[in-house]
Amino acid sequence: MIRISSQQIFSGGINRLQELNSSLNNTQQQISTGKRVNKPSDDPVAAARILKLNQELSRVETYQRNVDLAENRLKQEENALSSSIDVIQRIRELTVQAGNGSLSPNDRRSISSELQERLGQLANIANTRDASGEYIFSGFQGSVKAFEQDATGSWRYQGDEGQRVLEIDDGVTVPISDNGKDIFVRVPAAITGEHTNVATAGASISGVSLVNEAALAAEYPNSFPDDITLEVDAGGNVIATDSQGDVLTVTPPTYQSGEPFNVAGMEVTLADVVPGAGDVFTLKINEKQSVFGTIENLIAGLNSIDKTTPQGQAQYDDLIANSLINLDNAQESIILKQTELGGRMNAVESTKTFLEDSSVYSNEIRSQLQDVDYAEAISNLSFQSFVLQAAQQSFAQVSQLSLFDRL
Which of 59, 123, 176, 325 is most buried by a 10 A CB count? Predict the structure, then answer.
């Protein structure tokens, strides 16, 4: 016979009541929080998996914020570049209008006035700021204004050549900025000619234009030369040499004042040069021209060039022709940057979609592991309440029993 003391009966009853009450409390907590696993002891395996899923979701949320930032910055830059193309297109239209030979000086001044306004508008676009107040085209120096006017009134780039990048997923980075120097300053310039050694008063060079790009590329398949030097020798032949000292073919070889000739795919006209006098002209081929400098030179030429002389008319015609080429090159430079931006935005959009899918999948798995089944939980709560009440009643009756009642 096993003897059971009153102390054992009381201890066993109290322990059972505590267990039932603990189970009831756990079920109540599950219903109130909506979570099946509220602490690791509820389900150690599920708790470990939930912890990893929470870490994954935290990682995804961080990258999603970066994706949103990258998307906003790239869209802002794209809008700024689109606006700048519109401004340059209007400036080009004004330049074509300025080339009309029937314009009066007042007409040219009127065009110059609008060009000045458009120049300021383009500078404002190049000085666009983001939501945090940083200049988007200043490279790493976001607090520095991208373009400022110097003492002469010319617009100069003030930032650096840095490019900011942002990580939008593990091992995936995307550039979110471009410096204004690469976009607005380093623009391929029209080929121009200069009278670098003046021996004959009134001698000039004009009509410089690239008429056969394939011929220039064939002459210099690897890279264009920095410049080409032209000189008329005592026999009246045009001698052309490049920066490496190589002599180039000139067609026709004999100089005739005011008549064009070709060299390395370029057409050039020299006038009033005395053969053998020592006049030297330089063709600048591989130059860069800021779009702001192009517009500033155009404005200055409209206001200052005297078209009443043949030399002035030739200078004015060259100004219009070169300005159009430079403006076209500036537009092409910006369009190329827009194309590059489009590729970045596609990458950002793809990453955004991937992160969204990853977030949805992780949330679904976590929900399966963590969320409570309310129907089951309420049923358990009802059953546990019934069992607890029965246990309490049973314990109350047992606790009142005594051997003295049988004596």
Answer: 176
